Amino acid sequence: MRGADLMVQALVQEGVQEIFGYPGGAIMPFYDALYGAPLRHILCRHEQGAALAACGYARASGRVGVCVATSGPGATNIVTALADALLDSVPLVALVGQVARPLIGTDAFQEIDVLGMTLPLVKHSYLVSSPDELGEVLAEAFELARGGRPGPVLVDIPKDIQLGRVPAGYRPRPWHAARPANEHAIRQARALMAEAARPLLYIGGGVVLAEAVNALREFVDVTQMPAVCTLKGIGVLPHHHLLNLGMLGMHGTQAANRAVQQCDLLIAVGARFDDRATGQLDTFAPLARVIHLDIDLAEIGKLRKAEVALTDDFNHVLPGLSMPLQVDPWRAQCLADKAGYAFRYDAPGPAIYAPAFLQALSQSMPDDAIVCCDVGQHQMWVAQHMGFNLPRQHLSSGGLGTMGFGLPAAIGAQIAFPERTVINVSGDGSFMMNVQELATIGRYQLPVKIVLLDNAMLGMVKQWQELFFDARYSETDLSDNPDFTQVAAAFGIPARSIHTQAEQAEALQCLLAEPGPMLLHIKIDRRTNVWPLVPPGKSNLDMMEGALSCEVV
What we know:
There is one protein chain. This protein is of the alpha/beta class. The chain folds into three domains: 3-163, Thiamin diphosphate (ThDP)-binding fold, Pyr/PP domains (Rossmann fold), CATH 3.40.50.970; 183-341, TPP-binding domain (Rossmann fold); 354-523, 3-Layer(aba) Sandwich (Rossmann fold), CATH 3.40.50.970. 37% of the residues lie in helices and 15% in strands. It has 23 helices and 18 strands. The radius of gyration is 24 Å and the shape is globular.
């Protein structure tokens, strides 16, 4: 058996059905073995697009995403996606071709030290050094990618090992049963909960990764405790759940941030106290004692001391913590803030107000639609104004903030769930960063719906220049954007453009009724900003608010 044949066998036995990649010299033996194999390969138009599509596939499905690239520039092009997967704990295996072993270290054509280059960006990297270890390395890579706190694993495979003979037979690693919960820590946590007058739940994306959404929802129902969430925790509690106060942090809701600052007990579940959520760390939840649940021991005490830490399976821990709490006054106060600081959508003017449009989109799309956004103002508007009731329904590049993420991620999500509606909400800056993947959508006729909010600016950077750099708009003007409807048409994708609120309802209906892919280009006012905003380095109570603006564009 050739090494390349074993690679294919490994993917099949790991249950992989779809992979994303781009062929090239050092990975050609694998592509030869792939010919006729029972795997579906999605040919993207750039290695970064392929790797981000694999990320989107993994985020939407919970399965390991697999991307493939050749050596040299193929390998360097997937680096951003590896970092994206690391910071958001996405299970990803990257198979990369390498020059033949005798050429390693000689500056051979398309040779790059991808092992060294990616060490800080992955959960683990391998350079396969002998044919005998190929099977073991691949099995360990899948085990590491999906086990514990998920993450990306890179396997660098020299071309001569792909072509040469290797031991036949592949043995996937078995799943490890979760250990029992720490009963002593659970008793300590319950004691803190019983003493608290103002407890608050702080939900992170780790709840989704742990497949513990049902356990957490039951915990909320029993305790009747108010809850806030991170960007990646959106959808864990249904949007309309009474006790869901929304996202906290820099662009969080007033109700969420006010609750965090006033609570006397914060129960963090699968959240890592990152700076976008906490603002100035030493002012974050200043009155609260902390119970921290996280499977990754490295997160405990990293940024905030925890009075009680639990690193066991949430599905075992949360039922042990569940008990009714007598916190009626606190709950009433949180709900009053939620009602009193609710978002408004009555921006004056006939132009399209992006938050109102996204709210309308949210109310019109199917209940299980998947929304993949890019990075910038539109990303925060999606988080604030679209309602998500399911986990893995809102895909967003949280930790790395990767512009160009949305379109390939939508491709991956659509491949994972061909029967569901997948929507890519993008901005004009982000969209141009992986615009070539329109060809992938066209090739496979993926029915991805693209909502492109175009303010002819790098909007979020412009907003910060306006607020914190004396309105010195340095290199944020994108008024020379192409005609996006013609760009889409060139790839065989129908498109239309709208400018006014009067066109909005019919355009939305048309977009969602389109059986295939479609791009809806929406011209918005470049002066519209994202509110509220916590200035960098400030407390979450220092939220700035601005006027609703929506003039003719």
